[in-house]
Protein backbone atom coordinates (compact mmCIF):
# COMPACT_ATOMS: atom_id res chain seq x y z
CA UNK A 1 0.00 0.00 0.00
CA UNK A 2 1.47 3.36 -0.94
CA UNK A 3 1.48 6.18 1.58
CA UNK A 4 -1.52 8.53 1.54
CA UNK A 5 -1.11 12.07 2.78
CA UNK A 6 -3.52 13.47 5.35
CA UNK A 7 -3.44 17.08 4.23
CA UNK A 8 -4.47 19.57 6.87
CA UNK A 9 -4.04 22.33 4.31
CA UNK A 10 -6.69 20.82 2.03
CA UNK A 11 -9.09 19.91 4.81
CA UNK A 12 -8.84 23.31 6.48
CA UNK A 13 -9.70 25.01 3.15
CA UNK A 14 -12.80 22.86 2.98
CA UNK A 15 -13.71 23.78 6.58
CA UNK A 16 -13.25 27.51 5.96
CA UNK A 17 -15.92 27.39 3.26
CA UNK A 18 -18.30 25.94 5.89
CA UNK A 19 -17.31 28.58 8.44
CA UNK A 20 -18.10 31.38 5.96
CA UNK A 21 -21.73 30.29 5.98
CA UNK A 22 -21.86 30.22 9.79
CA UNK A 23 -20.19 33.62 9.99
CA UNK A 24 -22.71 35.13 7.52
CA UNK A 25 -25.56 33.77 9.62
CA UNK A 26 -24.09 35.35 12.76
CA UNK A 27 -23.59 38.65 10.91
CA UNK A 28 -27.33 38.79 10.16
CA UNK A 29 -27.73 38.99 13.96
CA UNK A 30 -25.00 41.67 14.17
CA UNK A 31 -22.57 39.22 15.74
CA UNK A 32 -18.97 39.12 14.52
CA UNK A 33 -16.96 36.35 16.22
CA UNK A 34 -14.02 37.99 18.00
CA UNK A 35 -10.77 36.70 19.46
CA UNK A 36 -8.39 38.50 21.81
CA UNK A 37 -4.84 37.16 21.92
CA UNK A 38 -2.52 38.09 24.76
CA UNK A 39 1.15 37.88 23.86
CA UNK A 40 3.66 38.26 26.68
CA UNK A 41 7.26 39.12 25.79
CA UNK A 42 9.02 38.70 22.48
CA UNK A 43 9.52 34.96 22.01
CA UNK A 44 10.07 34.74 18.20
CA UNK A 45 8.18 31.44 17.82
CA UNK A 46 5.20 32.80 19.80
CA UNK A 47 5.11 35.89 17.60
CA UNK A 48 4.98 33.72 14.46
CA UNK A 49 2.20 31.52 15.90
CA UNK A 50 0.14 34.56 16.92
CA UNK A 51 0.59 36.18 13.51
CA UNK A 52 -0.56 33.07 11.66
CA UNK A 53 -3.56 32.64 13.98
CA UNK A 54 -4.77 36.24 13.70
CA UNK A 55 -4.14 36.37 9.93
CA UNK A 56 -6.83 33.76 9.36
CA UNK A 57 -9.27 35.78 11.48
CA UNK A 58 -8.56 38.81 9.29
CA UNK A 59 -8.91 36.76 6.08
CA UNK A 60 -12.40 35.73 7.21
CA UNK A 61 -13.33 39.30 8.25
CA UNK A 62 -13.58 38.30 11.89
CA UNK A 63 -12.66 40.48 14.79
CA UNK A 64 -9.26 39.88 16.36
CA UNK A 65 -6.81 41.85 18.41
CA UNK A 66 -3.39 41.08 19.86
CA UNK A 67 -2.53 42.65 23.19
CA UNK A 68 1.25 42.72 23.54
CA UNK A 69 2.72 43.08 27.00
CA UNK A 70 6.29 43.29 28.24
CA UNK A 71 8.12 40.17 29.38
CA UNK A 72 8.45 41.84 32.81
CA UNK A 73 4.70 42.22 33.31
CA UNK A 74 3.42 40.89 36.63
CA UNK A 75 0.94 38.07 37.16
CA UNK A 76 -1.54 40.55 38.71
CA UNK A 77 -1.33 42.91 35.76
CA UNK A 78 -1.87 40.05 33.33
CA UNK A 79 -4.91 38.88 35.30
CA UNK A 80 -6.30 42.46 35.17
CA UNK A 81 -5.97 42.43 31.37
CA UNK A 82 -7.76 39.08 31.18
CA UNK A 83 -10.55 40.28 33.51
CA UNK A 84 -11.13 43.22 31.23
CA UNK A 85 -11.35 40.90 28.21
CA UNK A 86 -13.68 38.55 30.13
CA UNK A 87 -16.11 41.48 30.39
CA UNK A 88 -15.68 42.77 26.83
CA UNK A 89 -18.57 41.56 24.66
CA UNK A 90 -16.56 42.12 21.44
CA UNK A 91 -14.41 39.11 22.29
CA UNK A 92 -15.99 35.67 22.33
CA UNK A 93 -12.62 33.98 22.69
CA UNK A 94 -9.49 34.75 24.71
CA UNK A 95 -6.16 33.06 24.08
CA UNK A 96 -3.02 33.59 26.11
CA UNK A 97 -0.08 32.50 23.97
CA UNK A 98 2.16 29.99 25.78
CA UNK A 99 4.85 29.69 27.00
CA UNK A 100 4.75 32.45 29.60
CA UNK A 101 7.82 33.87 31.38
CA UNK A 102 8.97 31.83 34.39
CA UNK A 103 7.77 34.36 36.99
CA UNK A 104 4.17 33.90 35.84
CA UNK A 105 2.15 30.88 36.97
CA UNK A 106 0.62 29.52 33.76
CA UNK A 107 -2.19 27.74 35.63
CA UNK A 108 -3.25 30.90 37.49
CA UNK A 109 -3.49 32.73 34.19
CA UNK A 110 -5.46 29.98 32.46
CA UNK A 111 -7.78 29.78 35.48
CA UNK A 112 -8.50 33.51 35.21
CA UNK A 113 -9.97 33.19 31.69
CA UNK A 114 -13.77 32.96 31.61
CA UNK A 115 -14.31 29.26 30.74
CA UNK A 116 -17.00 30.34 28.26
CA UNK A 117 -14.34 32.32 26.38
CA UNK A 118 -11.60 29.69 26.75
CA UNK A 119 -11.43 28.74 23.07
CA UNK A 120 -8.12 26.94 23.65
CA UNK A 121 -9.93 24.54 26.00
CA UNK A 122 -7.21 24.67 28.67
CA UNK A 123 -9.31 25.94 31.62
CA UNK A 124 -9.87 23.17 34.23
CA UNK A 125 -13.65 23.47 33.74
CA UNK A 126 -13.26 22.69 30.03
CA UNK A 127 -10.68 19.96 30.68
CA UNK A 128 -13.15 18.42 33.15
CA UNK A 129 -16.03 18.62 30.68
CA UNK A 130 -13.92 16.87 28.04
CA UNK A 131 -12.92 14.19 30.56
CA UNK A 132 -16.53 13.37 31.47
CA UNK A 133 -17.55 13.18 27.81
CA UNK A 134 -19.50 16.48 27.63
CA UNK A 135 -17.01 18.76 25.91
CA UNK A 136 -17.56 22.48 25.49
CA UNK A 137 -14.28 23.68 23.96
CA UNK A 138 -11.98 20.87 22.87
CA UNK A 139 -8.30 21.97 22.65
CA UNK A 140 -7.57 22.95 19.06
CA UNK A 141 -4.79 20.51 18.15
CA UNK A 142 -6.56 17.35 19.41
CA UNK A 143 -9.84 18.49 17.85
CA UNK A 144 -8.06 19.23 14.57
CA UNK A 145 -6.53 15.74 14.51
CA UNK A 146 -9.94 14.10 14.85
CA UNK A 147 -11.52 16.40 12.25
CA UNK A 148 -8.69 15.54 9.85
CA UNK A 149 -9.23 11.80 10.30
CA UNK A 150 -12.99 12.26 9.97
CA UNK A 151 -12.50 13.97 6.61
CA UNK A 152 -10.55 10.95 5.34
CA UNK A 153 -13.17 8.64 6.82
CA UNK A 154 -10.75 7.11 9.32
CA UNK A 155 -12.50 6.00 12.49
CA UNK A 156 -10.64 5.12 15.68
CA UNK A 157 -13.15 2.40 16.49
CA UNK A 158 -11.44 -0.98 16.99
CA UNK A 159 -8.04 0.71 16.69
CA UNK A 160 -5.18 0.92 19.15
CA UNK A 161 -4.19 4.56 19.40
CA UNK A 162 -0.76 5.23 20.90
CA UNK A 163 0.01 8.81 21.89
CA UNK A 164 3.60 9.82 22.54
CA UNK A 165 3.66 12.92 24.76
CA UNK A 166 1.47 13.78 27.77
CA UNK A 167 1.33 17.58 27.79
CA UNK A 168 -1.88 19.36 28.79
CA UNK A 169 -1.87 21.05 25.36
CA UNK A 170 -1.73 18.01 23.13
CA UNK A 171 -0.82 14.54 24.41
CA UNK A 172 -3.19 14.31 27.38
CA UNK A 173 -6.29 15.80 25.69
CA UNK A 174 -5.88 13.79 22.46
CA UNK A 175 -5.64 10.59 24.50
CA UNK A 176 -8.86 11.52 26.35
CA UNK A 177 -10.64 12.51 23.14
CA UNK A 178 -9.53 9.46 21.16
CA UNK A 179 -10.88 7.11 23.84
CA UNK A 180 -14.16 9.03 24.28
CA UNK A 181 -17.47 7.67 23.06
CA UNK A 182 -18.55 9.07 19.73
CA UNK A 183 -18.53 8.73 15.98
CA UNK A 184 -14.98 8.36 14.65
CA UNK A 185 -13.76 7.99 18.28
CA UNK A 186 -13.96 4.92 20.59
CA UNK A 187 -10.26 4.16 20.21
CA UNK A 188 -8.33 2.08 22.75
CA UNK A 189 -5.60 4.36 23.96
CA UNK A 190 -2.09 4.07 25.35
CA UNK A 191 -0.12 7.15 26.39
CA UNK A 192 3.70 7.21 26.45
CA UNK A 193 6.13 9.82 27.75
CA UNK A 194 9.80 10.35 28.51
CA UNK A 195 9.60 7.85 31.37
CA UNK A 196 8.33 5.04 29.14
CA UNK A 197 10.99 2.34 28.93
CA UNK A 198 11.53 1.02 25.39
CA UNK A 199 9.05 3.21 23.56
CA UNK A 200 9.00 1.00 20.48
CA UNK A 201 7.34 -1.87 22.39
CA UNK A 202 4.24 0.37 22.54
CA UNK A 203 4.53 2.31 19.29
CA UNK A 204 4.87 -0.88 17.25
CA UNK A 205 1.43 -1.99 18.42
CA UNK A 206 -0.23 1.24 17.26
CA UNK A 207 -2.81 1.25 14.49
CA UNK A 208 -2.77 5.02 14.92
CA UNK A 209 0.41 6.59 16.28
CA UNK A 210 0.25 10.22 17.37
CA UNK A 211 3.50 11.93 18.23
CA UNK A 212 3.62 15.19 20.18
CA UNK A 213 7.12 15.25 21.62
CA UNK A 214 8.88 17.97 19.64
CA UNK A 215 12.01 15.95 18.79
CA UNK A 216 13.44 16.20 15.28
CA UNK A 217 12.71 13.07 13.22
CA UNK A 218 12.83 10.97 16.38
CA UNK A 219 10.47 8.22 15.26
CA UNK A 220 11.48 5.97 12.35
CA UNK A 221 10.26 2.82 10.62
CA UNK A 222 11.75 0.91 13.58
CA UNK A 223 9.00 2.36 15.79
CA UNK A 224 5.98 1.58 13.65
CA UNK A 225 4.08 -1.38 12.34
CA UNK A 226 3.22 -1.88 8.68
CA UNK A 227 0.26 0.20 7.49
CA UNK A 228 0.13 2.31 10.63
CA UNK A 229 -1.60 5.69 10.47
CA UNK A 230 0.78 8.41 11.65
CA UNK A 231 -0.16 11.80 13.05
CA UNK A 232 2.79 14.12 13.49
CA UNK A 233 2.17 17.06 15.82
CA UNK A 234 5.84 17.97 16.29
CA UNK A 235 7.18 21.25 14.97
CA UNK A 236 10.97 21.23 14.90
CA UNK A 237 13.26 23.77 13.29
CA UNK A 238 16.41 22.52 11.58
CA UNK A 239 19.03 24.47 9.68
CA UNK A 240 18.82 24.46 5.90
CA UNK A 241 20.45 26.04 2.84
CA UNK A 242 17.19 27.72 1.80
CA UNK A 243 16.64 31.50 1.93
CA UNK A 244 15.28 31.34 5.50
CA UNK A 245 18.23 29.34 6.74
CA UNK A 246 15.95 26.78 8.36
CA UNK A 247 13.10 24.41 7.63
CA UNK A 248 10.42 22.78 9.74
CA UNK A 249 10.24 19.02 10.23
CA UNK A 250 8.14 16.77 12.42
CA UNK A 251 8.79 14.03 14.98
CA UNK A 252 8.72 11.31 12.31
CA UNK A 253 11.58 10.71 9.92
CA UNK A 254 9.66 10.98 6.66
CA UNK A 255 12.01 9.01 4.35
CA UNK A 256 11.98 6.14 6.78
CA UNK A 257 8.27 5.95 7.69
CA UNK A 258 6.92 6.63 4.19
CA UNK A 259 7.78 3.10 3.08
CA UNK A 260 5.89 1.47 5.95
CA UNK A 261 2.93 3.66 6.99
CA UNK A 262 -0.45 3.74 5.21
CA UNK A 263 -1.36 7.36 6.02
CA UNK A 264 0.66 10.22 7.47
CA UNK A 265 0.35 13.92 8.13
CA UNK A 266 3.13 16.03 6.58
CA UNK A 267 5.00 18.71 8.52
CA UNK A 268 4.31 21.43 7.58
CA UNK A 269 0.80 21.20 6.13
CA UNK A 270 -0.69 18.52 8.39
CA UNK A 271 -1.81 19.17 11.96
CA UNK A 272 -0.72 22.86 12.02
CA UNK A 273 -3.39 24.25 9.64
CA UNK A 274 -6.03 22.14 11.39
CA UNK A 275 -5.09 23.68 14.77
CA UNK A 276 -5.70 27.17 13.40
CA UNK A 277 -8.98 26.12 11.77
CA UNK A 278 -10.17 24.72 15.11
CA UNK A 279 -9.35 27.99 16.87
CA UNK A 280 -11.67 29.72 14.43
CA UNK A 281 -14.28 27.00 14.85
CA UNK A 282 -14.17 27.28 18.65
CA UNK A 283 -14.49 31.07 18.45
CA UNK A 284 -17.53 30.71 16.17
CA UNK A 285 -19.03 28.22 18.64
CA UNK A 286 -18.38 30.68 21.51
CA UNK A 287 -20.12 33.44 19.53
CA UNK A 288 -23.07 31.17 18.73
CA UNK A 289 -23.48 29.98 22.32
CA UNK A 290 -22.67 32.98 24.44
CA UNK A 291 -23.31 36.23 22.49
P1 LIG B 1 5.78 19.52 25.68
O1 LIG B 1 7.24 19.78 25.68
O2 LIG B 1 4.91 20.20 26.67
O3 LIG B 1 5.54 17.95 25.84
C1 LIG B 1 6.33 17.02 25.19
C2 LIG B 1 5.94 15.65 25.66
O4 LIG B 1 6.76 14.71 24.99
C3 LIG B 1 6.16 15.43 27.16
O5 LIG B 1 5.04 14.74 27.70
C4 LIG B 1 7.42 14.56 27.23
O6 LIG B 1 7.43 13.65 28.30
C5 LIG B 1 7.31 13.78 25.92
N1 LIG B 1 8.63 13.36 25.46
C6 LIG B 1 9.72 14.09 25.25
N2 LIG B 1 10.75 13.33 24.82
C7 LIG B 1 10.27 12.07 24.76
C8 LIG B 1 10.83 10.82 24.41
N3 LIG B 1 12.11 10.72 24.02
N4 LIG B 1 10.05 9.72 24.48
C9 LIG B 1 8.77 9.81 24.87
N5 LIG B 1 8.18 10.97 25.22
C10 LIG B 1 8.92 12.09 25.16
O7 LIG B 1 5.31 19.82 24.20
P2 LIG B 1 3.85 20.10 23.57
O8 LIG B 1 2.94 18.97 23.86
O9 LIG B 1 3.42 21.47 23.89
O10 LIG B 1 4.25 20.09 22.02
C11 LIG B 1 4.84 18.96 21.42
C12 LIG B 1 5.27 19.30 20.01
O11 LIG B 1 4.11 19.65 19.27
C13 LIG B 1 6.19 20.51 19.90
O12 LIG B 1 7.08 20.30 18.82
C14 LIG B 1 5.25 21.66 19.58
O13 LIG B 1 5.90 22.71 18.88
C15 LIG B 1 4.27 20.95 18.70
N6 LIG B 1 2.94 21.55 18.64
C16 LIG B 1 2.36 21.60 17.41
C17 LIG B 1 1.11 22.09 17.25
C18 LIG B 1 0.51 22.08 15.90
O14 LIG B 1 -0.50 22.73 15.68
N7 LIG B 1 1.08 21.35 14.95
C19 LIG B 1 0.34 22.63 18.38
C20 LIG B 1 1.00 22.45 19.66
C21 LIG B 1 2.27 21.94 19.76
P3 LIG B 1 7.47 14.11 29.86
O15 LIG B 1 6.06 14.54 30.18
O16 LIG B 1 7.86 12.89 30.56
O17 LIG B 1 8.45 15.24 29.94
- Write down the secondary-structure element order: EHEHEHEHHHEHEHEEEEHEH
**What is the molecular shape?**
globular
What is the CA-CA span between the terminal residues?
49 Å
Tell me what portion of residues adopts beta-strand conformation.
15-25%
Helical fraction: 25-40%
Largest sheet: 6 strands, parallel
- Bound heterogens, unique: NADPH dihydro-nicotinamide-adenine-dinucleotide phosphate
User: Are there runs of 5+ residues with pLDDT below 50, and where?
Assistant: none
Molecular structure report:
With 291 residues, this protein is of the alpha/beta class. The protein contains ten helices and eleven strands. The strands form three sheets. A six-stranded parallel β-sheet has the order 1-11-8-7-5-6. A three-stranded parallel β-sheet has the order 3-2-4, sandwiched between helices. Helix 2 links the parallel strand 2 and strand 3 (63-69). Helix 1 (8-28) runs parallel beside helix 10 (271-290) and helix 6 (140-151) packs across helix 7. The protein is globular, with a radius of gyration of 19 Å. The chain binds NADPH dihydro-nicotinamide-adenine-dinucleotide phosphate (NDP). NADPH dihydro-nicotinamide-adenine-dinucleotide phosphate (NDP) binds at residues 141, 164-167, 169-171, 192-196, 199, 212-215, 233-236, 271-272, 275.
